[in-house]
Amino acid sequence: MNDDLSTAGSYVTAGAEFTRDTNYIDDRITAFRTESGHDAEGRLLWPVESDRYRLIVARGCPWANRAVISRRLLGLEKTISLGIAGPVHDKRSWSFDLDPDGLDPVLRIPRLQDAFLARFPDYPRGITVPAIVEVASGQVVTNDYPQITIDFALEWTAFHREGAPQLYPEHLRAEIDEVNSVVFSDVNNGVYRCGFAGSQKSYERAYRTLFDRLDWLTERLSTRRYLVGDTITEADIRLFTTLVRFDAVYHGHFKTNRQKLTEMPVLWAYARDLFQTPGFGDTIDFEQIKQHYYIVHTDLNPTQIVPVGPDATGWLEPSGRDALGGRPFGDGTPPPPPPAAERVPDLV
């Protein structure tokens, strides 16, 4: 627990609507090269190379959770190593307090901030996960989380496992992008716009937008198993990481309390279907999720008391979603169990 509240971050600005800083280190790791060393949008390109990079995540963070799921589904565990920060951070950085001696065992640093400062000594922005760090130099490469998973799907194909699914198929990309855009604005970030609202008016506006979008998603998913097409795609990964945190955190901590996820039958069944799909539920640690939000956000929860509930065993109840058809992995296959060092606690 962070007993020194002077190092705690501040997440709510009185009287203001929450606005997320979406400026990240936008370098990319790609299989294609250009003469300039940059892509068409001017982003620096790094080469795809096995064992060169380390993905740094935290189990509590939904944005990092996306990268963990994508890496699992595509079978990149032996290609890109995984460093897991603890669930609690302060305003300076995520730290590796779960590891022996409080050091990442590969990078040998106590704080993710060290990798950012190794490359940018005056780095002015937040230290965020997921981040990819070059192992040899110890320098951060990118923390551009939306691009990281897209590049996992498209640029790392030479290292995908046999049977890896198509998470961002070309013929569905326009629709995936469209769905992702509204889900990010209204749901992924929408819960934060509720929780970190600095006024009653901004909270109520975000609340209405969130539940209007959840109603829209309910209607969309009432007749189809997945968000886009008949297989799991990037769109499902992005929605899942918010839904899986809904009852444990957002419903109470962020005041998104019109209904619990368990009281929205279609979305609850959809989320359980994904949770029980290899590569999804086996990345979820509910205790670390709760610790992250309830301990870190001291301006919302100054006591830092972490709730005991809710009972998570309902995630294992049959979803019945297979009656809608669909093929989770398309022509591919489920991933094998996660490496022993990356396993999360069982629910029962």
The gist of it:
This protein has 348 residues and is α/β, with parallel strands linked by helices.
Primary descriptors:
348 residues, alpha/beta, Glutaredoxin, Glutathione S-transferase Yfyf (Class Pi), Chain A, domain 2, 2 domains, 6 strands, disordered N terminus, GST_Omega-like_C, transferase, glutathione transferase activity, Putative glutathione S-transferase, GST_Omega/GSH
Structure description:
The chain has 348 residues and is of the alpha/beta class. It folds into 2 domains: 155 residues, Glutaredoxin, CATH 3.40.30; 171 residues, Glutathione S-transferase Yfyf (Class Pi), Chain A, domain 2. It contains 10 helices and 6 strands. Strand 3, helix 1 and strand 4 form a beta-alpha-beta unit. One of its GO terms (cellular component) is cytoplasm. Keywords: Transferase. This is Putative glutathione S-transferase. GO terms for molecular function: glutathione transferase activity.
Name the shape in a single word: globular
Low-confidence stretches: 1-6
Question: Biggest sheet: strands side by side, in what order?
Answer: 4-3-5-6
Structural class: alpha/beta
- Can you count the beta strands? 6
Order of secondary-structure elements: EEEHEHEEHHHHHHHH
Please give the share of residues in helix: 25-40%
Largest sheet: 4 strands, mixed
Overall CATH architecture of the largest domain: Up-down Bundle
Detail the topology: elements first, then pairings.
Layout (H helix, E strand, L loop, with lengths): L27 E3 L14 E3 L5 E6 L3 H13 L6 E5 L27 H7 L11 E4 L4 E4 L2 H11 L17 H16 L1 H6 L4 H22 L12 H10 L2 H8 L11 H11 L10 H11 L52
Parallel strand pairs: 1-2, 3-4
Antiparallel strand pairs: 3-5, 5-6
Helix pairs in contact: 1-3, 1-7, 4-6, 4-7
